[in-house]
Amino acid sequence: MKKTHFLVIVLLLVTGITNAQTLKIGIKAGINYANLTDTSIKTDAITSYHAGLLAEIRISESFAFQPELLYSTQGASYKNAVDEFKNELGYISVPLLAKIGLSKSLALEVGPQASFLLSKKDEFDLNDYNSFDFGVNGGLRLRITDNLFAQARYTLGLTEISKNAEAKNSVFQLSAGILF
After folding, report:
1. 173 has which bridge partners?
2. How many angstroms separate the CA atoms of 25 and 47, rounded?
3. Distances in whole angstroms, Cα of residue 165 to Cα of each of 16, 36, 114, 140
4. 20 to 30 A Cα–Cα from 114, which one of 1, 59, 135, 138?
């Protein structure tokens, strides 16, 4: 009986959201300009990529909630007198953004992000990577048409990437996407 009530409530909510057209699903991809903030060594940024899915849940004319599910590569490079080392970390990132409309075509996006480490290409020899990374996002989204958009976003990591280093992720992203 409780399962039936729950199912009816979920179906009514989904139907209401769909009929009001307050939910749009989309895809996006873009480039990352990633570095590590580390006070002990000087690192250089690397260029990498991100891609994934997003949902836009419109709450009002000028406010929406936008969860995303992205694969994002981040990291940095380091040069010593002889060689250059590259550190590339692959994350599944889940930004949870508040989208505040500044005009009909421009919106501010802010919110937290949880990331889970999937892969690492480790030339820095940093062992004991943390499998979880938490950060905050801030950026702008430009609506080109009703369905096409471009984004610029900065993500500041708040947790250290390894137990052996005081390094945190720092990523600037440029994206393009489409909503369905």
Report:
1. 32, 153
2. 27
3. 49, 10, 20, 31
4. 59
What are the tokens at 145? 């048409």
- How far does Cα 138 stand from its chain's mean position? 10
Q: Which residues of the chain have pLDDT under 50?
A: 19
CA-to-CA separations, 11 to 2, 5, 19, 23, 84, in angstroms, rounded: 14, 10, 12, 14, 56
8 Å CB contact between 35 and 47:
no
Which neighbouring-strand residues pair with 134? 114
All domains of the chain in start order, with CATH: 22-179 (2.40.160.20)
Contacts of residue 141, defined as CB under 8 A and 6 or more positions apart, other chains included, come to 99, 106, 107, 109, 149, 150, 151
Tokens linked to 43:
């690192």
Q: What is the pLDDT of residues 8-23, one digit of tens each?
A: 565 555 555 554 559 9
